[in-house]
Amino acid sequence: MNIDDLEWQSRNLGGYPPVLVNLLVEQGHVEQLVRAASRGAWSCARAAARQLCKTAEFERALGVLEPYVELGWEPARWAAADTVLQTGQVQQALDRVRPDDVRLASEHVCHDFAELLAKAGQVDEAIAVLTPHLDRSWLLSALVELTEGQNRDEQVLELLAPQAERARSARGEERWNLEASNAQDLQAQVLERTGRVEEAIRILGADISAGRFLVQNTLTAYAELLQRNGRMDELRELGTGQHAHVGLPYYARALEDHGQAEEAETVLRRFIATDEWDRYRWPLIELLGRQHRLEEAVEVGRPTFDYHDGCLLESVIHLLAEAGRFDDALAILDERDAAYIDEHPSWFHTNRIGLLGEAGRYEEALAYSAMLPADLYGLTPSTAWILEQAGRIEEALGLLRADADVAVWEAAALLVRHGRADEAIDSMPSIADLRAASQRG
C-alpha cells in the first residue's frame, strides 16, 4: 500500500467501487471489509471503521484506520479523529486534525475541521472557522447545514446578509461569476426554519420579481419554498408567468396535492400546446402515471422519442417498467427503426435484454443476447444478469470472468449477492494489480 495507490482509488473510485462496498455493508459483512482494508482497499477501510463504530468497537475501528494514518493518508486521519470523537474524547479528536493556523489552512481543511467542531458541540468555533470563507457557495451551504438546530440562526442570518446583497446586485453589475450565488436561497431557508416564513417569501419573491438573482437554482428554491408552505397564489404567479419553465411543474404538483389534479392537467396541456421546447411534457407524464393512465402518458411522451435533446423515451420506458408493464415498454422500444438502433446500439440492446429479464422471459433474453455482436458494450454484464435471475449462477460467473473488458468487481458483487462474501474478497486482485490493469486499459 502506498500513497499513489490510495490517490488512484480516491480519484477514480478504483479497486473496490461504492456498489461493491455498499453491498458488503448492506449484508453486514464487516469482517470481509476489514480483510479488504488490510489489503489496502481504502473504501473498505472507511466503511469498516464506520460499521465498527456503530457497534461501539472504537479501538478496532482505529486499528483498521491506523496503517493508513501512519502512511500519511489525510482522509484516514480525519476518519480517525471522527472515531475518537465518538468515544467522547473531544480534545484528543480535535487535536488530531487541528490546523497549525486556521487562517492559513485550505478551504477543504476548514470545512472538515468546522464539521468536526460542530459534531463536538463547539458550534461557535465552527462558525468562526468558516466565516473567512463565506464567499464560497459550498462553504456557505456548510454553514447553514451545520448550524441547523443549534440556536445560531440569528448569527447565521447576519453572516448571510452581506452575501445575499452581493448576489442581488450581481446581475445588474454583470458579475456573472459570483461564487456565492446561492446566498439568497440560503437566507430564505434559514428564515423559514426560524418560523419567519412570511419574511422569507416576501424577500425572495421580491428578488425574483425584480430579476435580482443569478442562477436558476434561486427560482427552484423559491418554488419549493412556496410549495412547502401551500402558497398557491404566489405559486400560480410563478408557475404561469415568465418563469413558468421552472415554476409550472411545482404549481401543477401543488394543485394535484390539493385535490385539483384535473386543473393541473389542464394547465400543463395548455403550456405544452404552445411550448416549442417541450419542457412541460414530463410533469404531465408523471401526473398521468400517478393516476395510472399509462397509455395517455406514453402518448404525451411519444412526440419526443426521436429527439436528440429532450428525448423522453428512456424515461417513459422506466415509468412503464416501474409499473410492471414490461411488455408495453418492450413494444415501445421495438418501434425504433434501424437508424435509431444503429445510432444507440448499446443502449437499445442492453435495455431490451433487461426488459425481457424483468418480464421473466429469460430464455428469450438469452437467445436475443446470443444474436448480438460479442463486443457490444454492456452485453456481458446484461447477459450475466439474466443468467443470475434464472438461477444459473456459475454460468453468470464464468461469463463475467471470461470477458477481459468486464471489471473484476462485478463477479465479486455477484458472489456477495449469493452469500459468498469470503470468496468474493479472495477473488479480488491486489490494489496494485487493479491499478496496473486500469492503466493498461
Short description:
This protein is mainly alpha-helical and 441 residues long.
Structure overview:
It is a single chain. By secondary structure, the protein is an all-alpha fold. Helix content is 71%, strand content 0%. It contains 29 helices and no strands. The protein has helices spanning 3-12, 18-26, 30-38, 42-54, 58-71, 74-86, 90-97, 107-119, 123-130, 137-146, 153-170, 183-193, 197-210, 216-228, 232-240, 244-257, 261-274, 281-290, 294-301, 313-322, 326-333, 338-343, 345-358, 362-370, 379-389, 393-402, 408-417, 421-427, 431-440. α2 (18-26) packs parallel to α27, α18 (281-290) packs antiparallel against α19 (294-301) and α20 packs antiparallel against α21. The longest helix is centred in the middle third of the chain and has 18 residues, at 153-170. The radius of gyration is 27 Å and the shape is flat. 38% of the residues are buried. The model has no long low-confidence stretch (mean pLDDT 97).
The number of E-state strands comes to 0
Count of DSSP H/I helices:
29
Radius of gyration: 27 Å
Q: What is the beta-strand fraction?
A: under 5%
Amino-to-carboxy terminus distance = 21 Å
Please describe the topology of this protein.
Blueprint: H1 3-12, H2 18-26, H3 30-38, H4 42-54, H5 58-71, H6 74-86, H7 90-97, H8 107-119, H9 123-130, H10 137-146, H11 153-170, H12 183-193, H13 197-210, H14 216-228, H15 232-240, H16 244-257, H17 261-274, H18 281-290, H19 294-301, H20 313-322, H21 326-333, H22 338-343, H23 345-358, H24 362-370, H25 379-389, H26 393-402, H27 408-417, H28 421-427, H29 431-440
Helix pairs in contact: 2-4, 2-27, 3-4, 4-5, 4-6, 5-6, 6-7, 8-9, 9-10, 11-12, 12-13, 12-14, 13-14, 14-16, 15-16, 16-17, 17-18, 18-19, 19-20, 20-21, 21-23, 23-24, 23-25, 24-25, 25-26, 26-27, 27-28
